[in-house]
Design brief:
It is a single chain. By secondary structure, this protein is an all-alpha fold. 76% of the residues lie in helices and 0% in strands. The protein has one domain: Tetracycline Repressor, domain 2 (Orthogonal Bundle). Helix 1 crosses helix 4, helix 2 packs across helix 3 and helix 5 packs across helix 9.
Length: 193
């Protein structure tokens, strides 16, 4: 009787390891590089485990997308936690950019946006992001309200995402570009980046 719960927890741990491996591979290599074999190898599990726990590769990619979106929202929550107004406009732009941009160094930010742009090529990944987008918008919306701003959360996310893609494609600093454009949207003078 005591082996069933232990077996179930090991099964959940293996399923989580597979999902996490798939999410990491999406960030590193893009969604097009995902195969059952590459995911199983990264997760350190037998190849058959990927089909045992997931009905298809699309099912697994969708779970990986949901995990990536949850991580993105959790990072936004971490940035927003403890923020109280009034906050200077320059700091508002910094906080909003930090909430929307993924956690990590330039390599992590580049990987995030490369896979985000490529997500549209995977119906499963695009659907997972569309389903989870409301969580990020809700966190950013709460931060916007805490800061006393009157700008839609969707606009903040769009400005930061656009700034990131532009900065990455032109070799500029993503954080500086995002903050500069947010300051313009929020009505403060724009400093050249």
């Amino acid at each position: 009787m005591t082996t069933a719960p232990r077996r179930q927890s090991r099964g959940l741990a293996r399923r989580d390891a597979i999902t996490s491996a798939a999410a990491d591979l999406v960030l590193e290599l893009g969604p097009g590089a995902l195969t059952h074999r590459t995911i199983a190898t990264r997760a350190g599990v037998p190849l058959a485990s990927t089909t045992y726990y997931f009905s298809s590769l699309d099912d697994l990619v969708a779970e990986a997308g949901a995990l990536l979106a949850a991580r993105w929202s959790a990072h936004a929550v971490t940035v927003a936690t403890g923020v109280e107004g009034p906050v200077p406009v320059a700091d508002q732009a910094r906080l909003l950019a930090a909430a929307v941009l993924p956690d990590g160094d330039e390599h992590a930010v580049r990987g995030h946006y490369e896979h985000l742009v490529a997500a549209g090529r995977s119906a499963a990944l695009a659907a997972a992001y569309a389903d989870a987008r409301s969580s990020l918008d809700a966190v950013v919306g709460a931060l916007v309200r805490t800061l006393g701003l009157r700008v839609p959360a969707e606009l903040v996310v769009a400005v930061v995402d656009g700034a990131a893609v532009t900065a990455l494609s032109e070799g500029h600093d993503v954080h500086e570009r995002a903050q500069s454009l947010l300051r313009a949207v929020l009505g403060s003078p724009v400093r050249s980046a």
